[in-house]
């Protein structure tokens, strides 16, 4: 294929129940431009690779079956390096798109508004059995810009998996994306979000164009069901501290780290999990840990109020 405008990167690992829905939701896209689909499977032990073989003869689909498990970040990076599009977007193998015009809408926006480096949208949540859970931005379905200040404040502003972003915002050699993606084995989206926002703003459309699958049962295959709450917390903090060093102190991650910490503490209290205080102190330092403990009562009150609010305001799928 020549003059590819958009590269869609799908990463998969043991998602035999969902991978066909994910791939088909991309192939259903109606566009006025050529796009490619690069699928990287990280040595699935189920039938995911066999299912992907059904798509091997399509001209715009490239399937990569790893010989050894390399982790989510390395898998995504290798797919990025093979991509040719001027714009890039990603999709996890257990999620799917719902709007056949998603790519067209996002592409047209970025072609028109050069001041934005990426364009996202809203999404719904479902569980592993396709039961509707909620809209992530309940009560706030509207368009809005996102800046680096927003993400440093610790607010949940958008989901990286919804973004279509300009190639140069992550693949410019001087950005050293290879080094950045070594900060964590699995959370490429977290790292790339900060890299893009350090160079310019993102815009979020009011449209709901995709579904994110949230695994509620343990021992699943995605990040939220494989790792413990402390492992996920430690991963986020390590990334934030690593990014702080990467940007050479240009951005202060204290507030973000503090909010992640109180969120983890609140989770442990609700689920009667043991706090790993010694490990937390070594991970983030005594000063930031103390600030987090002081902020905790405020966080607890706000979280409770938001839960009450969500019980009264709903958007049905």
Explain what you see:
The protein has 317 residues and is an alpha/beta fold. It has two domains: 6-213, Spore Coat Polysaccharide Biosynthesis Protein SpsA, Chain A (Alpha-Beta Complex), CATH 3.90.550; 235-312, no CATH class. Helix content is 42%, strand content 19%. It contains 13 helices and ten strands. Strands 1, 2, 3, 4, 5, 6, 7, 8, 9 and 10 form a ten-stranded mixed sheet that branches. β2, α2 (48-52) and β3 form a beta-alpha-beta unit. α10 (229-246) packs antiparallel against α11. The longest helix has 27 residues, at 286-312. It is globular. Residues 308-317 have low confidence and may be disordered.
Outline of the structure:
With 317 residues, the protein is α/β, with parallel strands linked by helices. It has 13 helices and 10 strands.
**Average residue-wise pLDDT:** 85
Q: Architecture of the largest domain, CATH level 2?
A: Alpha-Beta Complex
Rough outline: globular
Helix tally?
13
Spatial separation of the terminal alpha carbons? 37 Å
Number of strands: 10
Total number of domains: 2
Helix share, percent: 40-55%
Main β-sheet: number of strands, strand sense, barrel status?
10 strands, mixed
| Residue windows where pLDDT falls under 50 for at least 5 positions | 308-317
Radius of gyration: 20 Å
CATH topology of the largest domain, what is it called?
Spore Coat Polysaccharide Biosynthesis Protein SpsA, Chain A
Please identify the structural class as seen in this structure: alpha/beta
Percent in strands: 15-25%
CATH C-level of the largest domain: Alpha Beta
